């Protein structure tokens, strides 16, 4: 049996103990919980998470980047309650329902380009699997079965199922499972932290695009698609890059006849300052993968949107030409209603404009961080901020997380990168707490 910290009240420690005995927590070395207690959350409101002991924590990373409009948002709650009394879920083969149709129509209108059909799944990684399979299958239907390789960006993250992990390039998640994965070439990242001294972010992005073109020119006959995280490479530590790379990537994919697959699972729905990251380069992908913020972080829901050209290739009398892929909860009605409520908030509250004002305020009060002697590479893109802490401590991330909890902040650094990705409803007073708490943490580490 695992020993736990008994300085906490009985009900809390009881729940921690039960969780450690019954739940296998994600992305966690369970043994570390001998030293670090789990936080039992009993409720949430806005940016705040409340634990069983009456403490509250500012959710500065939107509960793994999913939450947009706060926990227990009244508008989204009401939509789910209303839907619950109608139909919670029905299989989407042979059946349809208003929420999934309305959501698909609205997504068509707001996404870049003309992405005519929406294919739904539950998690981001499943959306990636769908995009990869569809892209390959499209080329197969076009008589080009040899186009069955994918390329992605160095340092990209696309999820942790085997197909998604194959196109991911983050060693800590990938290395162990390498024997199970398909080979995938990773082209140089445009992340400006890799620029030469004196080289601008834009020049570096152009140089990375030239490397992409060289690889594609030599290998395009075997390549089905190029998958990338537009503008911000999240899991690798919020690497940011210039939108010109996306423009060049779009041109190169057109020139050499390969699909451009945009993984906007993390960056979609306003995270980078525009509704979609692709908007900043004024490009449209052939496949767009969305999840996380799609329904404000409420319920598992992901979607792959694609062009009419792709859709039409599958449209045939032969069943074998169809995309015979499914997940049990495809198009879940509750999750779609939550997504519709989320899109309502975007429209009614003019969220993209409101976020610009919030981002400007946070940048203003973050000056002591930008000039802090322990910090390098302070950067911001829309509603994402990140910086590296100069430290040799291999346990920095875990220690910083614990120090954050003492300041009532939920921060979960990626290696030595501290980042903020708060719910959009964060107010100025809460931003003040975020910055002052982070400065305190830096003093203690
Ligand atoms: C989180 C994430 C995924 C995977 O989504 P899950 O819902 O966790 O499976 C894929 N791509 C990107 C860019 C992500 O941030």
UniProtKB/TrEMBL annotation:
Superkingdom per UniProt: Bacteria
Pathway membership, UniProt: Cofactor biosynthesis; biotin biosynthesis; 7,8-diaminononanoate from 8-amino-7-oxononanoate (SAM route): step 1/1
Cofactor annotation: pyridoxal 5'-phosphate
Residues annotated to bind pyridoxal 5'-phosphate: 124-125, 263, 327-328
Gene Ontology cellular-component terms listed: cytoplasm
MF terms (GO), sorted A to Z: adenosylmethionine-8-amino-7-oxononanoate transaminase activity; pyridoxal phosphate binding
Reactions listed under catalytic activity: (8S)-8-amino-7-oxononanoate + S-adenosyl-L-methionine = S-adenosyl-4-methylsulfanyl-2-oxobutanoate + (7R,8S)-7,8-diammoniononanoate
EC number of the protein: 2.6.1.62
Localisation per UniProt entry: Cytoplasm
Chain positions found as N6-(pyridoxal phosphate)lysine: 292
Positions bearing the site annotation: Participates in the substrate recognition with KAPA and in a stacking interaction with the adenine ring of SAM: 27
One Pfam family named in its UniProt record: Aminotran_3
Keyword entries, A-Z: Aminotransferase, Biotin biosynthesis, Cytoplasm, Pyridoxal phosphate, S-adenosyl-L-methionine, Transferase
Binding-site list for substrate: 64, 157, 292, 326, 412
Any one of the GO BP annotations: biotin biosynthetic process
Matching NCBIfam families: bioA, PRK05964.1
Function of the protein: Catalyzes the transfer of the alpha-amino group from S-adenosyl-L-methionine (SAM) to 7-keto-8-aminopelargonic acid (KAPA) to form 7,8-diaminopelargonic acid (DAPA). It is the only aminotransferase known to utilize SAM as an amino donor.
Quaternary assembly: Homodimer.
Cited HAMAP family: BioA
Family to which this protein belongs: Belongs to the class-III pyridoxal-phosphate-dependent aminotransferase family. BioA subfamily.
Identification of the protein by name: Adenosylmethionine-8-amino-7-oxononanoate aminotransferase
Species this chain originates from: Nitrosomonas supralitoralis
